[in-house]
Design brief:
Blueprint: H1 16-45, E1 55-62, H2 67-79, E2 83-84, E3 87-95, H3 98-110, E4 119-121, H4 126-131, H5 135-140, E5 142-157, H6 159-163, E6 191-196, H7 202-215, H8 219-231, E7 233-235, H9 247-251, E8 260-266, H10 267-276, E9 283-285, E10 293-300, H11 305-318, H12 321-329, E11 333-334, H13 361-374, E12 377-385, H14 401-413, E13 421-432, E14 435-445, E15 449-450, E16 453-454, H15 455-465, H16 476-489, E17 495-503, H17 515-525, E18 532-539, H18 545-554, E19 558-562, H19 568-581
Helix pairs in contact: 1-12, 2-12, 7-13, 8-19, 13-19, 14-15, 16-17, 17-18
Length: about 575
């Protein structure tokens, strides 16, 4: 859906006269709206009832961005001095993250404690399924049927950045947030996708659901999801900014910079930003395929009694004409979808945009699980082959296996996030007395110091320089067994614990254990409570490839035969994407 802006090249550069007109229009609209609101409130309050005696106060927890509206309606409700079951009724409103409240509700009901609130207004009904974490909480969390407000999601850029970004044309789809391999814009455009944290933001969660639909399903789609998750800039909500990241911080870096930040946010957040910055409103597009919207349901969470009755009575005030007027003034659409009259320069439309079918609770939960799994820290033991087989040319007159796999290792190291822990072994035969392997870099965080350089730099350098031992056979199977035992023994549950092997794929040490012995021992050692995968990268198709595949399979791992370093990015993201389907990755 287009935003109705002119298509000329200077559409993002309003002149001084237009800026002044916009500012005056905004000020006039604010004054008129405020006058109407006061009149509505005064007229309603003048008809208030009277009550005497003790007051019962219902606690209402709301998402931060809608708190000013609900606070205003609560003041109006309290001033009417309603009487419920013979007691004066009042409402106290406070803001809290919907994600935090959802978890808190589930935990408190499981512990049979009184919920922290008697009613709740989250920024999406998706959080209700998180709150219903047990049969008891499912009975407690009761939607009233009232939708207080709505706000469709939009794709936004700072106006100056949008003017120099051809991809941000009259029609913009969800693909603008996706990596190039999944149909997204070329990296040459310099887009910097700033994505709301799906674990904290309903906007981010809904966007994640739609991107997953675009990626599809199967091995390639898991790789695309990993590519997105590991490369996108995840932005967390700021203090007091509600569930969405601050648009002030988002727009600031674009001034005098060549970067082109783009984000997913709500219509209401854009109205608030543009009202505060009338001379430089954001460039906005409703996703061409359709959009989701944040809906703010009124949910009863009290166990009943007078407090529950007060919370229920407050729902009537939330549906009043006073509440509707104030919602539109603050940039929300009402629960029935009625929008405010925003200036055209905001790039927003008062008409209803095309809406996608809202994600179901199971769908949203599935994608959120995938996101969390991909975000787990990684703990890898890297093992490099330095046997004589690595000196073999990949083709007559061509580079050696050592050189090719060294390039692969160096390329792969660039893609591991700083949260990764890694150690490095090398193996051949009798490298450390009777042992076929030697530890070169101990396990630790990649950004951590290792001598005068970081651990990442040390591993990259050692992989690139090569350490082939002339005439040394390869004791691959014994090395894998020792590595597996160590990783299981030192397993850390807050990480994904894996073994990554770069090898010629040859077992040539007559004193080493056999493939059959290794398979038998691995099947004995495998512990579902301490999963450790063996991931092997080999060049070409070695004669022992079948054995290696069986060995990897015994640990739910995988073997990747490669022919060039150019295949590394795809392998890297496929390896990370496997986390989503473990332990049942068959495709």
């Amino acid at each position: 859906m287009t935003t109705g802006r002119p298509s000329s090249g200077n559409r993002y550069r309003p002149g001084r006269k237009r800026r002044l007109s916009t500012a005056l229009f905004t000020l006039l609209a604010a004054v008129i709206a405020a006058t109407v609101l006061v009149a509505l409130g005064a007229r309603t309050i003048s008809a208030r009832a009277t009550c005497a005696g003790q007051t019962t106060t219902a606690r209402v927890t709301v998402s931060s961005e809608i708190e000013p509206v609900v606070q205003r309606v609560a003041s109006y409700f309290n001033s009417q001095r309603h009487q419920v079951d013979g007691r004066c009724a009042a409402v106290a409103v406070h803001a809290a993250s919907a994600a935090t409240v959802a978890v808190d509700l589930a935990q408190r009901t499981q512990r049979k404690l009184r919920p922290a609130a008697d009613a709740w207004i989250p920024d999406s009904s998706l959080w209700l399924d998180v709150a219903r974490g047990s049969p008891a909480s499912a009975r407690l969390v009761r939607p009233s049927g009232i939708v207080v407000a709505e706000s469709p999601l939009v794709i936004a850029m700072p106006r100056a950045a949008a003017a120099r970004t051809p991809a941000f044309g009259n029609s913009v789809g969800w693909q603008i947030l996706a990596p190039p391999s999944a149909g997204g814009p070329s990296r040459a455009l310099g887009l910097n996708v700033q994505f709301p944290d799906p674990t904290q933001s309903a906007a981010g969660l809904a966007g994640l659901v739609e991107l997953k639909r675009l990626f599809g399903y199967g091995r390639a789609a898991r790789g695309e999801m990993a590519t997105f998750a590991l490369n996108v800039q995840v932005v967390h909500p700021g203090t007091g900014a509600g569930a969405l990241p601050s648009l002030d911080a988002f727009a600031r870096p674009s001034r005098g910079s060549d970067t082109a930040p783009v984000t997913l946010t709500s219509e209401q957040a854009v109205v608030a930003f543009d009202r505060a910055h009338p001379g430089e409103p954001l460039a906005v597009r409703y996703p061409a395929q359709g959009t989701f919207q944040l809906s703010y349901p009124y949910v009863l969470t009290s166990t009943g009694g007078v407090t529950g009755a007060v919370a229920k009575a407050f729902g009537t005030a939330l549906r009043s004409s006073y509440a509707s007027a104030y919602l539109r003034f603050e940039g929300f659409r009402t629960g029935s979808g009625v929008a405010g009259a925003w200036p055209a320069s905001y790039g927003l439309s008062s008409t209803a945009p095309l809406l996608l079918t809202p994600p179901g609770p199971s769908q949203a939960g599935k994608e959120l699980h995938a996101w969390r799994v991909l975000g787990l820290g990684s703990r890898f033991l890297a093992i490099n082959d330095v046997s004589a087989a690595m000196a073999t040319p990949v083709r007559p007159g061509g580079p050696t296996l050592e050189e090719v796999l060294g390039h692969i290792s160096a390329a792969g190291m660039k893609r591991f996030p700083d949260s990764t822990q890694m150690g490095l072994w090398v193996f051949a035969s009798h490298l450390a007395g009777a042992l076929p392997y030697r530890q070169i870099v101990p396990m630790g965080p990649l950004p951590g110091q290792f001598g005068v350089v970081t651990r990442r730099q040390a591993i990259q350098h050692l992989a690139a320089t090569g350490q082939t031992v002339p005439h040394a056979p390869a004791a691959l199977y014994g090395t894998l067994l020792a590595a597996y035992k160590q990783m299981v023994a030192t397993y850390q549950p807050q990480y994904v614990n894996d073994i990554i092997v770069l090898t010629a794929g040859v077992e040539s040490d007559p004193s080493d254990i056999s493939a059959a012995t290794l398979l038998h021992d691995l099947r004995t050692l495998v512990k579902p409570s301490r999963p450790v995968e063996i991931l092997i990268v080999v060049f070409g198709v070695p004669k022992d490839l079948g054995d290696l595949q069986q060995i990897a399979k015994a640990t739910n791992g995988k073997v990747w035969p490669v022919t060039s370093a150019a295949q590394v990015p795809q392998i890297f993201y496929q390896a990370f994407g496997r986390r989503i389907c473990q332990p049942h990755c068959h495709r």
